[in-house]
Amino acid sequence: MSLVVKKFGGTSVGSVERIKNVAKRVKEAVDKGEKVVVVSSAMSGETDRLLSLAYEISNRPDPREVDQVVSTGEQVAIGLLSIALQEIGVPAVSFTGWQVPIETDSVHTKARITHIKKERILEEIEKGKVVIVAGFQGINPKGDITTLGRGGSDTTAVALAAALNANVCEIYTDVPGVFTADPRIVEDARKIPVISYEEMMEMASLGSKVMQIRSVEFAAKYGVKIHVRSSFSYEDGTW
Ligand code: ASP
Ligand code: MG
């Protein structure tokens, strides 16, 4: 049976309606017999909102405390998504980074994942549950919450796919794939059907926001297969 990691970005979970939509999509995969691990970002705009609260109080907020604040965005999203799945009859359980745990170094606001303890996730999958993991966060050796840098949920998803030996890591976003330019801005942007890790890293370093650059480095290192898809349109017969 195949194991799939599905990562949903902020716009995909940007409202209660959209969260319900994601739950429906996840149910379709479960009904097909897939084992699913979901990684979610915070609802769109939430991380910016939380950051601005910290910077309203201080010009130089303590990075440890910034992580304490910004990591909450993903916690809300995973809890809501789990409720949405349970509501349509899909057994689900959500975990924050520290609950997994996703272990990181201690570089607050730009931490690197060092190790993922996968036992708890595997246990829940075995029980037939969809496991929903908070993107963008982990825990350092001291037991403090860390975050992985802006866009870090991609890295959470790829690292989990590598750790769990998933068949594929699907990145659901607001554009249906990787394009030669931002299709929301450039009219004749073309979709690139297949792209190498190297080319993807180059695009990310040139400012493409499709995936966090660290996540692509991670995918290259561990050979994780990535599909970039839209969470809004049926574009390739799947969704
Ligand atoms: N919520 C975080 C951000 O806005 C992480 C992510 O979305 O990947 O950067
Ligand atoms: Mg992103």
Structure commentary:
This protein has helices spanning 16-31, 46-57, 63-70, 72-87, 119-126, 153-164, 197-205, 213-222; strands spanning 3-8, 35-40, 92-95, 102-104, 113-116, 130-134, 137-139, 145-147, 168-173, 178-179, 191-192, 226-230. The two termini are 20 Å apart. The radius of gyration is 17 Å and the shape is globular. Strand 7 and strand 8 form a beta hairpin. It has one domain (3-175, 225-238): Carbamate kinase (3-Layer(aba) Sandwich). With 239 residues, it is α/β, with parallel strands linked by helices. Helix 6 runs parallel beside helix 8. Magnesium ion is lined by residues 9, 151, 154.
Global morphology: globular
Order of helices and strands: EHEHHHEEEHEEEHEEEHHE
The DSSP helix count reads 8
Could you tell me the strand content as a percent range? 15-25%
Q: What percentage of residues falls in helices of 4 or more residues?
A: 25-40%
Molecules bound to protein: aspartic acid, magnesium ion
Based on CA atoms alone, the radius of gyration comes out at: 17 Å
Overall SS class:
alpha/beta
First-residue to last-residue Cα separation: 20 Å
Count the domains.
1
The CATH architecture designation is 3-Layer(aba) Sandwich
CATH level 4 superfamily: Acetylglutamate kinase-like
Q: In CATH terms, what is the fold-level topology? A: Carbamate kinase
β-strand number: 12
Q: Given this structure, which CATH class is correct?
A: Alpha Beta
